[in-house]
Design a protein that fits this description.
The protein has 290 residues and is mainly α. The protein has helices spanning 37-44, 57-63, 71-78, 100-107, 109-113, 165-172, 183-200, 208-225, 233-241, 261-275, and strands at residues 180-182, 230-232. Helix content is 36%, strand content 2%.
C-alpha cells in the first residue's frame, strides 16, 4: 500500500513540497470529493486539483487520458457537467420553452442536447470568468449520480458521496473465481444491490436511464481496468477502496489505441441486456446519452 503521505511536513515548520503530478495522496478531510471513484482517483493523483475545488473542464478532459480514453469519449464525460443549470428550473432536464429553445439550439446545439447533464450552478465562474465545478457538486442526484451505486448509498438515504466499506467488501467478494471480476459478476452484483435498495429505500429511482448509466460504468471498469471481459480483484480493491490507480498491482493504461465510444457503448448495451428490463422506478429527470 502506498505511504499515506510521501511528503511529510518539514521539522522546521517550512511548507511541504508540492507532490508531483501522478503521485497518489489520499484525500484530506478538508478536500472535496464526489460520488465517482474515477474522478476522485484523478484528484488523488493530482491530475486535477487535489483539493477537489475549482476544477475546470479542460483539466478534467486532459486528465481522462490517464485512463486511456479517446478524446471523444473523454469529452462526453468531461464537458457536459460544466453546462450551467438554469437558475429558474428545478431540473436540468427541463429545457427552455420556445421560442428561446430554438434560439438556444441554434447557438449552442451540443450544450442544448446535453443540458440534462448540467451540474454547474448558475453564475459559478472563477475570477477570470472561467466555469468551474467542485467535485462534491457531481453528486447532483439523477444527473450522472444515480441510486443503486456499487459503493455509495442512495441519495434518499442521506449520503451519496461517501464510500461505504461494507459495499466495497461486497464488490470484492462478488468474484465467482476469487481472483477476477467478470462482466457477469458485476451485473449480478448490481442485481443484488437493486433488490436490496428496493427494500431499504422506498424512494429509490432506478429506471432505464439509470440502468444505462450503470451499465456504462461497468463497461468502463472492464475496458479501462481490465481486458474488456474481466478485471483483477486487486485492481478493483485499489480503485474503490483507496480511489487509486492500481499501478503498483501491475495495471497500465491501454497502449496502442484508446478506449473509444463505440466499443464502450456496445459493451454497455450488452451489459444492460444482461441486467434485464427495469420498469416502474424511473422519474423524468434525465435521459442517458450512452
Amino acid at each position: 500500500m502506498p505511504s499515506p503521505n510521501p511528503f511529510p511536513a518539514e521539522s522546521d515548520g517550512t511548507p511541504s513540497p508540492e507532490p508531483e503530478r501522478g503521485t497518489y495522496i489520499p484525500s484530506k478531510p478538508t478536500d472535496l470529493r464526489g460520488p465517482c471513484p474515477a474522478v476522485n482517483c484523478l484528484a488523488n493523483h493530482g491530475y486535477i486539483p487535489r483539493s477537489g475545488r475549482n476544477v475546470h473542464a479542460g483539466q478534467l478532459h486532459s486528465a481522462m487520458d490517464e485512463f486511456g480514453l479517446s478524446s471523444v469519449l473523454a469529452s462526453i464525460f468531461a464537458y457536459p457537467p460544466f453546462i450551467e443549470v438554469p437558475v429558474d428550473k428545478s431540473s436540468a432536464a427541463q429545457a427552455p420553452n420556445p421560442p428561446s429553445s430554438w434560439w438556444t439550439t441554434l447557438l449552442k446545439p451540443i450544450a442544448y442536447i446535453l443540458r440534462g447533464f448540467a451540474m454547474r450552478p448558475a453564475g459559478q465562474t472563477d475570477d477570470s470568468g472561467a466555469a468551474y465545478l467542485n467535485l462534491d457538486q457531481l453528486a447532483r442526484h439523477n444527473v450522472v449520480e444515480h441510486d443503486v451505486s456499487f459503493s455509495r448509498l442512495d441519495a434518499g438515504q442521506g449520503d451519496n458521496l461517501t464510500p461505504q466499506p461494507h459495499l466495497i467488501r461486497d464488490i470484492l467478494s462478488a468474484s465467482s473465481n476469487g481472483s477476477t471480476l467478470t462482466g457477469r459478476d458485476l451485473v449480478e452484483l448490481r442485481k443484488r444491490r437493486y433488490a436490496c435498495q428496493k427494500e431499504d429505500n422506498k424512494e429509490m429511482v432506478f429506471g432505464a436511464s439509470q440502468n444505462q448509466l450503470a451499465s456504462a460504468e461497468i463497461a468502463l471498469i472492464l475496458k479501462v481496468l481490465g481486458n474488456g471481459k474481466e478485471v483483477p480483484v486487486n485492481y478493483i480493491k485499489a480503485f474503490f477502496e483507496e480511489e487509486r490507480l492500481p499501478r503498483e498491482e501491475g495495471w497500465k493504461k491501454r497502449s496502442g489505441w484508446s478506449v473509444g465510444f463505440v466499443e464502450m457503448d456496445l459493451l454497455a448495451r450488452k451489459l444492460k441486456r444482461m441486467f434485464g428490463d427495469v420498469k416502474g422506478e424511473e422519474k423524468p429527470v434525465v435521459a442517458a446519452v450512452l
